[in-house]
Amino acid sequence: MDANLRRTIILDNYQNPMHKGLVNDDGYIRIRTNNESCIDDLTILIKVVNGRIEDIRFDGEACAISTSATSIMIRNFIGKNYEEAKSLLEQYEAMIDEKPYDEEKLNELVVYEEIYKQPNRKKCALLPFRAIHQILDDPSLFEK
């Protein structure tokens, strides 16, 4: 991906993040995730209905990488069932860890394909995915 396009996508999702703002609804699973080494501290709400991720919301304070990664992550995970979400998460983590991955499955998430060049930013790019990990660690949540 072209560096200018990458920068544009990241900045747009940082300045105008999708699904920002929490809701007061008991149907959401609430997960707080943060990076101990910086300001990143996010609350992520995930709603699973009939085996699919129906909605994801977030709020908190975070850097441009964490905020944009959360915004892009949300668009890519909404509508996914357990297997699809697990596969997407595995592909993203493989990309971040410089392992083989399927670029086509990641859509806009490929904007972080060179984050390995800044190792201290890898945690930022992975922060919102910790919430998805917690959901996927309990597949029974997709059975409701």
Structural summary, described in words:
Helix content is 42%, strand content 17%. It has 144 residues and is of the alpha+beta class. The chain has a single domain (3-143), classed as Sufe protein. Chain: A, CATH 3.90.1010. Strand 1 (29-34) and strand 2 (41-49) form a beta hairpin. The radius of gyration is 14 Å and the shape is globular.
- Overall residue-averaged pLDDT value: 93
Q: Give the CA-based shape.
A: globular
Give the count of helical stretches: 5
CATH fold name: Sufe protein. Chain: A
- Unreliable stretches, pLDDT < 50, 5 or more residues? none
Instruction: Please tell me how large the radius of gyration is.
Output: 14 Å
In N-to-C order, the SSE pattern is HEEEHHHH
Distance between the termini: 39 Å
Total domain count: 1
* Alpha-beta content class: alpha+beta
Q: Which CATH first-tier class would you pick?
A: Alpha Beta
Helicity level, as a percent range? 40-55%
Strand order of the largest sheet: 1-2-3
Q: Assign the CATH architecture.
A: Alpha-Beta Complex
Largest sheet: 3 strands, antiparallel
Beta-strand percentage range: 15-25%
The number of E-state strands comes to: 3
